[in-house]
Amino acid sequence: MNFTAEHRALADTVMKFVEKEINPFVPEWEAAEEFPSHAIFKKLGNLGLLGLKYPEELGGAGLDFSYSMVMAEALGVAHCGGVPMAIGVHTDMCTPALARFGSPELQKEFLAPSIAGDVVGCLGVSEPGGGSDVAAVKTTARKEGGDYVINGSKMWITNGLKADWCCLLANTGDGPVHKNKSLIIVPMDAPGITKQKIRKIGMNSSDTAQLFFDNVRVPQRNLIGQEGMGFTFQMLQFQEERLWGAASSLKALDRLIDLTIDYTRQRHTFGRPILDNQAVHFKLAELRCEVEALRALTYRAVEMYVSGKDVTKLASMAKLKCGKLSREVPDACLQFWGGMGFTWDNPISQAYRDSRLVSIGGGADEIMLGIICKLEGTLPKAVK
């Protein structure tokens, strides 16, 4: 990617926001298992950070996708994973299809206030019966009069407890599983919606919910694009989600390595700094190389995406590599912190808990491998 002065200014703005508005409050929000999303999103909206890639007529900046990735990477300086994830869901996971395929009326009603930070969005794809197998979702939206009547449940929904609207994937027909689904905007105050909090081992500052839909009625005009195109639209959204996930991990992983270098330089065993042990400084050097390799892969994928190319394979590779490094780096660093790394409030243990999700959410590692193998032509014929 060719970083301009505008890219660098954006990164600086986002990092200053994180240092002032997020990091001082992370311990409080982690303990509360939530953060004031409406207040934070409104501040982000006031800075013009929630619609970087969206049209100016809707309040966005009208920039290309590379600016969203610069913001994602800059959010990695946060001292937790939950708040950046919640922001990313709003900016790059529940809104891309609405911005690309939604009607002008739907965009004005839901996208414009999302860009302004007046409302919070969430994405409803995963269900209790499965997450990565998108074609297997069971939630239905049947036509009745001028409405869709929605029944079903969604699971592991980031922002689910506080969201004002949901980009929902539901079955709107009985045809083939890849052609019977639609994306529908569902106001979260609609009668028939109930929410149940999900407690997690990490990402605690981000609220997560199971959502239940019992004869929930929404106007058919809330359909995004054409009926039956939901699976395709969601696959397109996944490209941006997976690139966002890879980009957001870069500074976060670098930070863990930096913290570990500082700690092992100061901490002495057997009369010398822990860092002086070859096993330690060699491993940290190796980890740094891996993060830089991920950065190069992510930047290349973003550059291709901005130029209009299909980056399904590269985005899947970046997501896969990101997931693996998000497990390997905190685990290796925690080992070098010893007992201190095993304490709850340690920054490495925080990352150890938070980052485990990366290999699961947005498509598990195994799903990424399957996509890559399919595009490489290496899947057995019976699987294809």
UniProtKB/TrEMBL annotation:
Needed cofactors: FAD
Keyword match NAD: no
Residue ranges of every copy of the Acyl-CoA dehydrogenase/oxidase N-terminal domain listed in the record: 4-118
Keywords: FAD, Flavoprotein, Oxidoreductase
InterPro entries (UniProt xref): Acyl-CoA_dehydrogenase, Acyl-CoA_DH_CS, Acyl-CoA_Oxase/DH_mid-dom, Acyl-CoA_Oxase/DH_mid-dom_sf, AcylCo_DH-like_C, AcylCo_DH/oxidase_C, AcylCoA_DH/ox_N, AcylCoA_DH/ox_N_sf
Any coiled-coil regions, as ranges: none
Domain Acyl-CoA oxidase/dehydrogenase middle stretches: 122-216
Gene Ontology terms, MF aspect: acyl-CoA dehydrogenase activity; flavin adenine dinucleotide binding
Acyl-CoA dehydrogenase/oxidase C-terminal domain ranges (all copies): 228-373
Xref: SUPFAM superfamilies: Acyl-CoA dehydrogenase C-terminal domain-like, Acyl-CoA dehydrogenase NM domain-like
Family of this protein: Belongs to the acyl-CoA dehydrogenase family.
Protein name (record): Citronellyl-CoA dehydrogenase
